[in-house]
């Protein structure tokens, strides 16, 4: 709870996955992928309840074993590749509200972004609750992938800058305006806005900047192997982050 407002965390984990089959229960650092966002939600000081939304009883059992609740199974129609995410979110909210369990804020933490921590959730919730915005989502700075350096490949195989002016007009990296990308690390919204907008992203959405190492998403095996390496070195990365924020070198 935050300032008297109730907070629900949902961890989505459908069984079907084409990029990396069964990725939501693939072991990462000794526990299944879906256990990581459950741990983040449970570590939050503001989240009142953590549930899993899944179409598979086996996934539900694993989630419960790691501290989440599984009050229902997601209908098959809401677990396909083409089903919009908002539909399973509203299904969860409606199902709980039908039992008299209503919430003010909804936190969505996906297993594909396993490095988000409880402190990230709390910081984002506090920023949102202190503002006049209605949603906040995780973003990460685009540095090596800044759009100013994007090129298109032409029919003859040669490349050309996406931005006008040719290669000579490309700016120096240090002169670039900072831009950010949605990184999937966390999504939070008031329930009222989520029902109205059917999205976390609209003109009343804040960006919560995440550390770059937390911004990795699991889509395929290469992504998973990269995250394994990060997860194995979390203590080093956290210490480096503390030194950087304090100005130490």
Briefly say what this structure is.
With 249 residues, the chain is α/β, with parallel strands linked by helices.
Structure report:
With 249 residues, the chain is α/β, with parallel strands linked by helices. It has 2 domains: 7-141 and 179-246, Spore Coat Polysaccharide Biosynthesis Protein SpsA, Chain A (Alpha-Beta Complex), CATH 3.90.550; 143-178, no CATH class. The chain has helices spanning 35-43, 57-65, 85-98, 118-129, 191-197, 221-231, 234-246; strands at 7-12, 27-28, 31-32, 49-53, 105-108, 135-141, 151-153, 159-161, 180-190, 205-209. The strands form 3 sheets. The chain has a 6-stranded mixed sheet with strand order 4-1-5-9-6-10, with helices on both faces. Strands 2-3 form a two-stranded antiparallel sheet. Strand 2 (27-28) and strand 3 (31-32) form a beta hairpin. Helix 1 (35-43) packs across helix 4. The longest helix has 14 residues, at 85-98.
What structural keywords apply?
249 residues, 7 helices, 6-stranded mixed sheet, two-stranded antiparallel ribbon, Spore Coat Polysaccharide Biosynthesis Protein SpsA, Chain A, alpha/beta, 2 domains
**Considering DSSP H and I runs of 4 or more, what fraction of the residues is helical?**
25-40%
Q: Which strand-content bin applies to the residues?
A: 15-25%
Overall domain count = 2
Shape: globular
The overall strand count is 10
Low-confidence runs: none
Please give the count of helices: 7
Largest sheet: 6 strands, mixed
Reported by name, the CATH topology of the largest domain is: Spore Coat Polysaccharide Biosynthesis Protein SpsA, Chain A
- Give the structural class: alpha/beta
Q: Strand sequence of the main sheet, in spatial order?
A: 4-1-5-9-6-10
Helices and strands, in N-to-C order?
A: EEEHEHHEHEEEEHEHH
Span between N and C termini?
38 Å
CATH architecture of the largest domain: Alpha-Beta Complex
Backbone CA Rg: 20 Å
CATH 4th-level superfamily of the largest domain: Spore Coat Polysaccharide Biosynthesis Protein SpsA, Chain A
Mean pLDDT: 89
Main CATH class of the largest domain: Alpha Beta
